[in-house]
Write a structure and sequence with these properties.
By secondary structure, this protein is mostly helical. It has a domain of 208 residues. The protein has twelve helices and no strands. The radius of gyration is 19 Å and the shape is globular.
């Protein structure tokens, strides 16, 4: 009888991750694109990230002092956290911010990183032993077509040069690698300690480069402070924790399919935050993307 509450709690947590987790993650992650673009008006990219990481670490240290979470028990667990931290914080966020600063449009960046499910679908059989059937491939391709339609309906895609596009592709490789690595080798850790280690890795890599190569002073405006607060609390702490938790709880290819929602959601949120109008044709393309994600992630009840 004493085990029942624990089982019930685990079942409730799993149901929440299955139903509520994807919705919360999608909103927080998608809003990060227009909000980050706003913040980059007031600070250089690596400086912006270094401040963000430092603030995140400060918050986590304060919470850890109160909660006293369990730390990784062996060197291997520490290494896993360091690798995931580098892939997500340095490669994904670092290269994304550099790409936006270099001139790529936010919609183009969102589209490129939404290719992640295709890469995961191709690589998952080799790296994590998942079988990707024809139904899921159809869903993934529909999702990609719909996401591309949303972006194309907003107008021609422009990048100042090939450099920003290559930076965005590097960000795509980073987040894809993190999900595959977490699924295959990651171990369940306290979110507080895992996030603290990963943001420390981000700060260790980004801060020296910011000091060495970026010399533009930060403009501490109310808008910049607001963007920092959102990115630290919602993007850095809540969204990343949800992403890793959902990856461990479910099939990595299904979790990755959530990213097909990001370009349409980012387009809607860009309209809300930045006043960018979403054309009528984009709504139809968004419907195709939603259908594709539904097909790719649906699994029959047993």
């Amino acid at each position: 009888m004493a085990q029942a509450p624990h089982v019930d709690t685990n079942a409730r947590n799993e149901r929440w991750l299955t139903v509520g987790g994807p919705v919360v993650f999608l909103l927080l992650w998608s809003a990060g694109f227009p909000i980050a673009k706003t913040g980059l008006r007031y600070a250089s990219p690596l400086t912006f990230l270094s401040i963000r990481f430092a603030l995140s670490i400060g918050v986590l240290l304060a919470v850890c002092a109160i909660r006293r979470p369990q730390w990784p028990r062996d060197a291997r667990a520490w290494l896993h956290l360091v690798v995931v931290g580098f892939l997500v914080q340095v490669m994904y966020f670092g290269l994304s911010y550099l790409s936006m600063t270099a001139g790529i449009a936010t919609s183009v960046l969102a589209l490129i990183v939404s290719l992640q499910p295709i890469l995961v679908g191709v690589l998952a059989p080799t790296f994590v032993g998942e079988r990707i059937g024809a139904r899921r491939w159809i869903g993934l391709l529909l999702g990609l077509a719909g996401a591309a339609g949303v972006i194309a309906a907003r107008g021609p895609l422009h990048a100042e040069s090939l450099g920003p596009v290559l930076l965005a592709v590097g960000a795509l490789i980073g987040i894809t690698g993190a999900m595959l690595y977490e699924k295959r080798l990651g171990t369940a850790q306290d979110p507080l300690t895992s996030n603290l280690v990963q943001y420390s890795v981000g700060l260790i890599f980004c801060a020296p480069m910011a000091l060495g190569f970026e010399h533009t002073p930060v403009q501490w405006t109310p808008t910049f402070i607001a963007t920092l607060a959102y990115l630290v609390i919602c993007n850095s702490l809540i969204a990343i924790t949800l992403l890793l938790a959902m990856t461990r709880a479910g099939k990595v290819s299904q979790v990755a399919s959530l990213f097909f929602f990001v370009p349409p959601a980012a387009a809607v949120l860009s309209w809300f935050f930045l006043g960018e109008v979403l054309p009528t044709a984009a709504w139809w393309a968004m419907g195709v993307a939603v259908l594709g994600v539904a097909i790719a992630t649906w699994s029959p009840r047993k």
